[in-house]
Design a protein that fits this description.
Helix content is 38%, strand content 16%. Strand 13 and strand 14 form a beta hairpin. Helix 3 runs antiparallel to helix 11, helix 4 packs parallel to helix 11 and helix 13 crosses helix 14. The longest helix has 22 residues.
Length: 473
Amino acid sequence: MSHDVPFDLKMKGVLFMLETDELQGALPQVAMPLPGPNAKKILAKRAENVPSAVLCNYPVVIDRGSGAMIEDVDGNRFLDWVAGVGVMNVGYGQQRVIDAVKQQADRFFHGMINITTHANYVDLAARINELAPVNADTRKTMFVNSGAEAVENAVKIAKSFTGRGDVIVFSGAFHGRTALTSTMTAKKTYSYGIEPAMGGIHRAEFPYLYRAPRGYSREESIQYYLDKLQYVFEQAVPAKQVAAIVIEPIQGEGGFIPAPFEYVAALRKICDENGIMLVADEVQSGFARSGKLFVSNYWKEKGFAPDIIAMAKSIGAGLPLAAVTAGSHIMEGVQPGIVGSTFGGNALACAAGLQVLDIIKDQKLTDRATRIGQMAFDRFTDMKSRYEEIGDVRGIGSMIGVEFVKDKETKEPYPELVSKIIKHAVSHGLIMENAGVHDNVIRFLSPLVATEEQIKAGLGIYEDAIKESLAEF
């Protein structure tokens, strides 16, 4: 865990949100078996009209949200520790976002940036350029709509700038579901049946320290993974052909695994020596989640900032918005016409994005991420000492993964238990999601505006769900 940022002890709840909205400070409460009668009707209609391949295993139909809480169409209340998979860092119902979007909607919805310039796009780009910790003195930013688009454009920018065609990604990676990003994504569930994959993508082994060779020290483990990367250069693609190495500072779908700083420092050196762009996929880890605006802030402070950052999810507070930021020299080295987007940087979404940056600053959400992350990490670590089935607890700030195993010695994954824990938790008002190559990790991804009382209540439901689930085996 990273705990560099002190917490303001005056922050006991959520600041600057609607004081009259009682849902904001409510605790989880489920009054009936799920789904309730109203939700059941909507879910039946969903089954008739929405492809089952658009997966959803949660018996919840949201009606409204405030802070870290949502209420379903039957009046049940849930603490949301998935937050749209990291989209709602600033929480539901932020009045400043609502007002800004309404005001923009009164003026116009859309002006394509390739045709007419609008101030929200330019202002948000300027703000991000001030804040994004990339390896350059001056920076430029472009906007798209989703995390996959951001990653794909980051790769295109790296290829265009370097004149090279190959990319290195990692085991456990998730970068999206487009043709390119599904190839970059490790788990073949996301691309099964739609191959052949795109060429030029090579995979190194991610530094997953919990599953490093038995008996290795931390230093030996990191060297082991660096040797695996060197093998890629020797056996798959020469370093001089590689445009970019793309890495998640904390793997998301791969199991909430932080990339060790020592490993990233070595990556930075390798990239510098070989003219490779180091790309940080901060789609899930960005916007205060880690206790900094980006995990790359920690990297930059330690001297190994990335060249390009892909960001999305919480930047738009729920509206489709994503961005790519790089040094000005990199962005200006891109062939005209290579990048662009009809809806990227939509005026409504950029209006929300400007408010998100203000809210993070005004509500001290980086501090709050550190505080609630510490609360959760301490409780999870305590659980680990008492449950044989918890093999590892890791993360940075408020992005924490708890890995469940059948035995701490063998580390055999335990996805069956995770599935039961999630099911029991939602039935008592806590929404959680799994992760990991074997689906045996539960992620902590609470909105950063959750009150301490809500975090404590969620942790209680979490442990009760473990007990209930273990009793069924």
